[in-house]
Amino acid sequence: MASSTIVDIDLKGLLPKIASGKVRDLFAVDDNTLLFVASDRISAYDVVMKNGIPGKGALLTAMSIYWFKYLEAKIPGLKTHFLNRSLPENVEASVDQNLSKTLRERSMQVRRLQIVPIESIVRGYITGSAWSEYQKSGTVNGIALPSGLVEGQQLPKPLWTPSTKAEAGAKDENISPENARDIIGDETVAKEIERLSLEIYATAADRAEEVGIILADTKFEFGLDVARGNQVVLVDEVLTPDSSRFWSKETWEAHLGKQQPSFDKQFLRDWLVAQGLKGKNDVVVTDEIVEQTAVKYREAYELLTGGKLQPVA
Ligand code: ATP
Ligand code: MG
Question: Which intervals hold domain SAICAR synthetase/ADE2 N-terminal (predicted)?
Answer without folding.
Answer: 18-279
